[in-house]
């Protein structure tokens, strides 16, 4: 049988993840210096593990409501009220106040993005995404038959209204903001969030704010909330501006902040009409997020991760201090990545440079996995200080 003839064109247009290829290669190397994968290196907090174990042993292992378990929805609603000022209705959509934003627990933030794109984009529609981008973004456009329109954010990696506006057409349905960003770790400012939100409102385009790294925003990138009030300065987000719940789909998750990447748990909140469609699509695809792990996620809101965040900021500082002496690198304000330029004096593309890194047993990701360009590489500093020191020394030697 000619299976290749049967494969759909959408599948043929998608390449296997370049990140996974590097990850697989690292598994074959002896004692690699792995600065490639964005996997937190700290253990899952004990309270979170214990909550999931109790749920499993208490036989909470069946299907849940499509929107997620009520205790987790309620904790998310309380968090959003405090963090962004949204009054989200925690009740099932059938009983919820139609004037208030809706909420749904999803199978990771990737699941939320996939469902949102399915709910919003028809074949031929356009979605504006930043370049560089999280590797998934252009491919989910392909999966739904839409066009991902890259917005050039080099050299500072900021998705600004001035850069986005010329790209909006009659076919544009959404703009996707990722802050803190992957691969560059750049955090949008309050002004940038406000201007982008105002632009999207003027042009009747939905703004999706992918904030999987929201808690991992460093002290020097936080800003006072435009809503005012006390408490620690938050991560800048367009969701915090008045009325944003009607114009922003907010996507957040638990994997990166609490080290539970394999649990596949996220959530999205926003216009109730859109959440209704996302819920309908989840019913016939993912069905629901993993049941006992939702109970574990509810415990996340009681855990303080400040020690881990401070530790990553110290590693960030180490990366910038060392590499800024030999090349150009934008200072990350959050997440745990740096997007590093390959010095032009070397005469190498990023893909060629990462091959040189392999000769030093060093694993980093070439920039063409995240961009139309191949001038940078992504370094993940989600590793111990000793490994990071070895990796930085190897990079300094290669760039000298």
Largest β-sheet summary:
7 strands, mixed
CATH superfamily of the largest domain: Type I PLP-dependent aspartate aminotransferase-like (Major domain)
Text of the CATH class of the largest domain: Alpha Beta
What do the pLDDT scores average to? Answer: 93
**Cα end-to-end separation:** 54 Å
Strand content: 5-15%
Give the SSE order as H and E letters: HHHEHHEHEHEHEHEEHEHHHEHEEEH
Structural overview:
37% of the residues lie in helices and 14% in strands. It is built from 15 helices and twelve strands. Strands 2-8-7-6-5-3-4 form a seven-stranded mixed beta sheet, sandwiched between helices. The longest helix has 18 residues, at 306-323. The mean pLDDT is 93.
Question: What labels would you give this structure?
Answer:
three-stranded antiparallel sheet, Aspartate Aminotransferase, domain 2, single chain, alpha/beta, seven-stranded mixed sheet, Aspartate Aminotransferase, domain 1
In short:
The protein is of the alpha/beta class.
Task: Tell me the layout of helices and strands.
Layout: H1 3-6, H2 9-12, H3 18-28, E1 33-34, H4 46-57, H5 70-83, E2 102-106, H6 108-120, E3 126-131, H7 137-143, E4 147-152, H8 161-164, E5 172-178, H9 190-202, E6 206-210, E7 248-253, H10 255-258, E8 266-270, H11 272-283, H12 291-298, H13 306-323, E9 337-341, H14 350-359, E10 362-363, E11 365-366, E12 376-380, H15 385-399
Parallel strand pairs: 1-10, 3-4, 3-5, 5-6, 6-7
Antiparallel strand pairs: 2-8, 7-8, 9-12, 11-12
Helix pairs in contact: 4-12, 5-12, 6-11, 13-15
């Amino acid at each position: 049988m000619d299976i290749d003839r049967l494969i759909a064109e959408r599948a043929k247009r998608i390449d296997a993840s370049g990140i996974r290829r590097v990850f697989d290669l690292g598994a074959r190397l002896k004692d690699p210096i792995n600065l490639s994968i964005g996997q937190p290196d700290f253990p899952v907090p004990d309270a979170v593990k214990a909550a999931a174990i109790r749920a499993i042993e208490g036989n909470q292992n069946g299907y849940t409501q499509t929107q997620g378990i009520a205790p987790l929805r309620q904790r998310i609603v309380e968090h959003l009220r405090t963090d962004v000022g949204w009054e989200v209705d925690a009740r099932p959509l059938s009983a919820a106040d139609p004037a208030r934003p809706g909420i749904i627990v999803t199978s990771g933030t990737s699941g939320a993005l996939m469902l949102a794109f399915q709910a919003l984009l028809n074949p031929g529609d356009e979605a504006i995404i930043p370049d560089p981008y999280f590797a998934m973004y252009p491919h989910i456009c392909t999966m739904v038959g839409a066009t991902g329109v890259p917005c050039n954010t080099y050299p500072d990696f900021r998705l600004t209204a001035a850069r986005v506006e010329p790209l909006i057409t009659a076919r544009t349905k959404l703009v996707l903001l990722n802050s803190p960003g992957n691969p560059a770790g750049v955090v949008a400012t309050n002004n940038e969030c406000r201007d982008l939100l105002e632009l999207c409102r003027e042009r009747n385009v939905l703004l999706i704010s992918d904030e999987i790294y929201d808690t991992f925003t460093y002290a020097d990138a936080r800003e006072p909330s435009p809503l005012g009030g006390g408490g620690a300065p938050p991560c800048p987000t367009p969701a915090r501006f008045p009325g944003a719940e009607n114009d922003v789909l907010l996507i957040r998750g638990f994997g990166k902040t609490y080290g539970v990447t394999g649990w596949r748990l996220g959530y999205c909140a926003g216009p109730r009409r859109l959440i209704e469609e996302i819920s309908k699509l989840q019913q016939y695809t993912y069905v629901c997020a993993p049941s006992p792990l939702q109970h574990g996620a509810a415990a996340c809101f009681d855990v303080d991760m400040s020690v881990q965040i401070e530790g990553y900021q110290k590693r960030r500082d180490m990366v910038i201090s060392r590499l800024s002496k030999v090349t150009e690198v934008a200072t990350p304000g959050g997440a745990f990545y740096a997007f590093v330029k390959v010095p032009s004096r070397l005469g190498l593309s990023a893909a060629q440079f990462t091959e040189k890194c392999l000769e030093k047993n060093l694993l980093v990701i070439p920039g063409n996995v995240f961009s139309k360009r191949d001038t940078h590489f992504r370094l993940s500093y989600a590793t111990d200080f000793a490994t990071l020191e070895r990796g930085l020394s190897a990079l300094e030697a290669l760039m000298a």
